[in-house]
Amino acid sequence: MALDTVTTATQNPDTKQPFAELGLKDDEYARIKTILGRRPTSSELAMYSVMWSEHCSYKSSKVHLKQFGEKAVKSDALLVGIGENAGVVDIGQNYAITFKIESHNHPSFIEPYQGAATGVGGIVRDILTMGARPIAVMDPLRFGLADAPDTRRVLPGIVAGIGGYGNCLGLPNIGGEIVFDETYAGNPLVNALCVGVMKHEDIKLATAHGTGNLVVLFGAKTGGDGIGGVSVLASETFNAAKPTKRPSVQVGDPFAEKVLIECCLEIFKADLVIGIQDLGGAGLSCATSELASAGSGGMQINLEKVPLRDPSLSPEEILMSESQERMCAIVAPEKIKHFMAICKKWDVTATVIGEVTSGDRLHITFNGELIVDVPPRTVAHDGPVYNRPIKKPAYVDELAKSIFEVPLPTAPDEVKAAVLKLIASPNIADKSWVTSQYDKYVQGNTVLAQPEDSGLIRIDEETHLGVAVSTDANARWSYLDPYEGAKLALAESCRNIATSGAKPLAVTNCLNFGSPEDPGVMWQFAETVRGLADAALELGLPITGGNVSFYNQTGSVAILPTPVIGVLGVIQDVRKRTPMGIPEADLDLYVIGKYNSNLSGSEWAYLHGEIGNAAPVADLDMEKRLVNFLLDGQPIFESAHDVSNGGLAATLVEAVLKNQVGARVDLNDVANALFSETPGRVLVAIKSSATNEIVNLAGKYQIPIYKIGTTGGSDLEINEAVISIAELSKAHTETFPKLFG
Amino acid sequence: MSFRVGVVTFPGSLDDRDAARAVEMAGGTAVPLFHASDDLKEVQAVVLPGGFSYGDYLRCGAIARFAPIMNSIVTAANHGFPVLGICNGFQVLCESHLLPGALTRNSNLHFLCRDQKLKIENTNTIWTNGFKPGQEILIPLKNGEGSFQCDDETLNMLESQGRVIARYLDFDPNGSRNLIAGISNERGNVVGLMPHPEHAIESLTGPSTDGLTFFTSVLHQLVGR
């Protein structure tokens, strides 16, 4: 095929172009023509199509997401905010932390291993790009029903992919979630979070400054994998009638990424880059246009210089390829020799592919012929913005009026059977089958990891400074009330951080939804964003960035609205963290926080085929006081564990099983007390000598506390129901190996 | 003068900084050694750390054995120089023929990370002399290819010469022959161990501090010289 140059495009304005196949709408195509004053070349069309995709341009979400900026609290801790590759937060002692979650949902359904693996790879490069050393990952996952045949294809592949890639990078996996619900059957969610650390002065940005500075592409060679990953794959609903999208999935090489990490960190240390951007979704199209758009000048790229794995690739394919493990840096000419020497040391291929120019255009040539001539901002930042129709779905009010009933056990043997049933259910069961496939020890700084309430990493071995990270979502509450659901998810994530002994500092998010073209889904989304923005404001926490994944929908079945909220916390002395497991006998057990009987959205209701009728209303003022209670009371807590999914029953069992120390509790209205998931509660164990202190704390922070029992023995005794630790352990741990081998 | 222990970094090494931390915590000085150089920098012992050297897309350790640093290490090891290979390092030692046998995929074909009980079987090596005979220890195990395999003749030789230095206890994590977790060469200066002692050196970040004894053992031996 002849090269479609700018000259050809001008001379042949009526050539038919496959814009619809590339995911562009009629009006979007018309708009590109208006911007350029002519039809785009096929290379330009390729660039606009990937960069204006839902995945890259946030065109349906932008109008809502701006609330995160508008409502934000002024925070001195926020060093880099929304808009860069990842937000950066000051944690003191001149350390800065960057963290972010991204989705890799669609690729992981098509090709579970590679989809999940490259999801880890992508988020790690985002963190690296900020100038940070990646120090931990977490993976919130959602699947269809645990015993569905396709879940047995998807789950083991995704878990192996996350482990295969993350383990090979040397990043401890410190937490995450695994939740099953039938709405995820055709749309499993693979969200990947990465945390990185750097010194304040090491922060890097994605920008191209200084005429004559060089554009260097380094890392893996470019191949034909992942072409159209963001546009064709992540920005459309799945449709069984259409051809397979497997070729659009990227293929990962974790070894290449590991050496790229070490190479980049050495380059950063020597202060050799002006700006840097990773190549992820939309590949070179994204990196060149974003660097140029954020910079002060233009950019000239010689596309034929890009090292190729497959020499038959066309310029359009080179621009759209999402081959992994690649980075693009802006380097001053006098530093290029040193830069190249470091790349050579790590056997990383590096090529100068262009330079920063004095103009305001992004020019791309192929063997001397001009094939792209665009204002970079129109590609990278000024994409289309949609104000999609919003309509509250009828189900919300219908459910709110409905009455639901679930069995409530009362007799001791009924209570025992109910507890064993709950803890063996896939959503509550022990997840070691999954987490033991992840390395949690590498780097030697992991203080807490799954199944603890939050992952906790030591940052400084001398001062004992550390950070905690937690991710949470309760999609059933979000389905019943997306506004409250988002607030509750943020509150829970903060509570998890404080339960481990750290102070919540900043928020990130990954918003997973169905099709934005469905007004009901768009309502769920709008309400979620409003809830999250309001909650962050009320809790006084900055939102540092986030990710939106739409089109998690097969046909007319959308996933439950799933806003995964990540919170970062700081702990001054990691040695003082509070673990979840009851450490010894003869401690007093308390539930901290107000209790209301409420089974709506609970695991117990779900086990009986009910979703409930109304989500709890988040009491953020109380949640704030609870966080302070937990931080203040930390010295007297021997253990602490959040009450959430599965209610107090699950919390008690997990606290007992961790160190195999039993407990005896007395509960009124036993079934509701065990299975209600009333938010804002934590189970703590204290020495009886600390009774006065906990009572004083309760008064100081106006938080109700309930003494429910004591620790010790080899059983969990709930009123007259006696369940041995052996029985609990068997029920809790057998489920996953039985399901997945 | 403090005692210098080299820690080798191959491309893809992951636990090199952890091994260095363990050396320092045991009282030694950790000296970074890079795969591309054959300079041992006057160290008195070497640790080959865990990881995925060169990605381990071929047999684990099969490429690392050809690194320039390995030439120097093999030569020195054959003259009694102390070498500890952990996980990937153990695989490299087998590929380099400093130790017999091979590490193959775990019997259940999954990567496995767990706190593993071990029984120390031989306390006469440079790396295990600080343990009590038969001592039970708890240290992390984390690998995808940790199943130790060899022919019957080699197995008999290893057992009869007391060269099995540690065995898995209570749980068979990977299908290793005779539950072997670690072995030594005939002289006892080269030890390969699948579990990770460098991740059990402080109670804050590991399941125990049992791993530290591997590193203090070699230092005591060196002090005694």
From TrEMBL, chain A:
GO molecular-function terms, A-Z: ATP binding; metal ion binding; phosphoribosylformylglycinamidine synthase activity
Domain PurM-like C-terminal: 211-365, 594-714
SUPFAM superfamilies on file: PurM C-terminal domain-like, PurM N-terminal domain-like
Pfam families attached to this UniProt entry: AIRS, AIRS_C, FGAR-AT_linker
GO biological-process terms attached to the record: 'de novo' IMP biosynthetic process
Gene3D superfamilies membership: PurM-like C-terminal domain, PurM-like, N-terminal domain
Keyword match Magnesium: yes
Residue ranges annotated for the PurM-like N-terminal domain, each copy included: 83-198, 452-571
InterPro entries reported for this sequence: PRibForGlyAmidine_synth_PurL (IPR010074), PurL_linker (IPR041609), PurM-like_C_dom (IPR010918), PurM-like_C_sf (IPR036676), PurM-like_N (IPR016188), PurM-like_N_sf (IPR036921)
Domain Phosphoribosylformylglycinamidine synthase linker, chain residue ranges per copy: 20-59
Keyword field contains Metal-binding: yes
Keywords noted in UniProt: ATP-binding, Cytoplasm, Ligase, Magnesium, Metal-binding, Nucleotide-binding, Purine biosynthesis
NCBIfam families linked: FGAM_synth_II, PRK01213.1
HAMAP family for the chain: PurL_2 (MF_00420)
Protein name: Unannotated protein
Organism: freshwater metagenome
Lineage of source species: unclassified sequences, metagenomes, ecological metagenomes
UniProtKB/TrEMBL annotation, chain B:
Key words, A-Z: ATP-binding, Cytoplasm, Glutamine amidotransferase, Hydrolase, Ligase, Nucleotide-binding, Purine biosynthesis
Coiled coil: none
UniProt cross-references to HAMAP family, sorted A to Z: PurQ
SUPFAM superfamilies, A to Z: Class I glutamine amidotransferase-like
UniProt record, GO biological process: 'de novo' IMP biosynthetic process
Database matches in InterPro entries: Class_I_gatase-like, PRibForGlyAmidine_synth_PurQ
Descriptive protein name: Unannotated protein
PROSITE patterns cross-referenced by the UniProt entry: GATASE_TYPE_1
MF term (GO), any: ATP binding
Transmembrane regions: none
Organism, scientific name: freshwater metagenome
